[in-house]
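Dear colleague,

Following up on Tuesday's group meeting, I ran the structure prediction for the two-component complex that the binding team flagged. I've pasted the input sequences exactly as they went in, so you can double-check that nothing got truncated or mislabelled along the way. The structure tokens for the whole assembly follow below. Feel free to forward this to whoever is handling the docking comparison.

Inputs:
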Amino acid sequence: DAGVTQSPTHLIKTRGQQVTLRCSPKSGHDTVSWYQQALGQGPQFIFQYYEEEERQRGNFPDRFSGHQFPNYSSELNVNALLLGDSALYLCASSPPDTLGTEAFFGQGTRLTVV
Amino acid sequence: RKEVEQDPGPFNVPEGATVAFNCTYSNSASQSFFWYRQDCRKEPKLLMSVYSSGNEDGRFTAQLNRASQYISLLIRDSKLSDSATYLCVVNIYRGDNQFYFGTGTSLTVIP
């Protein structure tokens, strides 16, 4: 059973460009959340997708957008990249709403903006 | 105020030492609690869930104090392989699971 998979693993972009990151959740999971982890910080919640809709959103600008597909996979899009967007982007999936469940993380995409 | 606060450390301890990490959370609606371990440049992985009655897994003991909104992790007989960042995580369930992370506490176990 594959866990959460993310692609690409590493990415270098230029300031002002746009980037798309991808995530496939763990089998049986229907909820996908995205996190940004800057160096030396804990993961910060960006947004969560469920049934192809954004259900919750953290304190991130509209430059950050996402999508969830019918097979539950998800994309994170960031427009007009800033140097400060350089971080590890983590995708986490969880099963259908169950109190107390843990989050399962992918290996992350390390984005560097130059 | 942050949802979850942790002492970032770093904690540098000798092998065999006992070390304790503490974490506080601000939202009394928090319902599930976890400690995750994150190795350098890797994704966080669940170390253990934290229950009100306290729970133990080998050398690791987790405690939850709901009245004080406080979570702890105790590592006994530290091993070199315990060197990592330990993240305190709370889940506020409002019909869906939303996880809030502390900044993490860095531990280095020294030979």
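The first strand of chain A starts at residue 5 and ends at 7.

Cheers,
M.
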